[in-house]
């Protein structure tokens, strides 16, 4: 934990033996030895310094480096690793922004220190949506984190709804030409490429290959072609979202011995790539999450209705003792005493699902969410296409 006056405090329980304030202990998890300094017994806000501690004592030590929550400290001559606590996954996430400009670094440093003391808390930057995300066990947990951030580190944040990052891709193979030509006396610019753009399987990402034959484009300019394609890849062609699951093959083109340059081929290839996406029967992809909900039979009907309204697709229902387990994905549902529901859902509809399921089941439910391959939205009319969101994996 982080104390605003003492600094970092590491708290542990002694299972065997005894230690004093200048003992050297061995961290069996990372194989590093650390020297203890000031030791304390804590009672609420009161900290009493001690010189020695033995079996059963709960002790706090200040400024202990190379230690993480769950590590085992022992004698280096007899190393042992105790079983770690199996912490539950984060249940909810939200985006944050600083209340004052210039506080970004203080916020990041403060959250990192809070993450060290709380294994169920996580923060990270989503570079696709340009948002700072925090993950926790629920609204109350995240509220406590934000309060600690202000109280211990003196920085405030405001909550923002997370964005979801769509992707673009193509559905057919096309061959396209890109030519950039500026020749008006003196040295000009000339770049000319032919690209084959074709779809790949979901989750493959992007590949660039070249099959130039006979020196149609010198090797020195091919890097410029790839740079142009990769730059255009990030900007998309139909809605400004990054393009994925696509292969680009540079198979032909031409050059000018005087006017050609890397930048000319970069521009030409970007032009060709955008045309290839538009001609390749483009489609928007949305992040899809696999959801597993465990609920008492009495609440199955109400919760199934809500999940169906979010375009859930039933994967299976497993009856369990007094419960039902429903697995779902992204488009339909069916009931079954506890039930586990497994379903696929568009990520856009999942931001409020934890609260809805908890309230409709009187907090007598469990939910687990993992990522699945992205898919085309069932209906653009019911999807706010131009609202960016995030494709990061979230486990609730």
TrEMBL record:
Signal peptide: none annotated. SUPFAM superfamilies: EF-G C-terminal domain-like (SSF54980), Ribosomal protein S5 domain 2-like (SSF54211), Translation proteins (SSF50447). GO terms for biological process: ribosome disassembly. The keyword Repeat does not apply. Residues 283-353 form the Elongation factor EFG domain. Transmembrane segments: none annotated. The keyword Magnesium does not apply. InterPro entries: EF-G-like_DII (IPR053905), EFG_II (IPR041095), EFG_III (IPR009022), EFG_III/V (IPR035647), EFG_IV (IPR047872), EFG_V (IPR035649), EFG_V-like (IPR000640), Ribosomal_Su5_D2-typ_SF (IPR020568). SMART domains: EFG_C (SM00838), EFG_IV (SM00889). This is Translation elongation factor EFG/EF2 domain-containing protein. It comes from marine sediment metagenome. The lineage of its organism: unclassified sequences, metagenomes, ecological metagenomes.
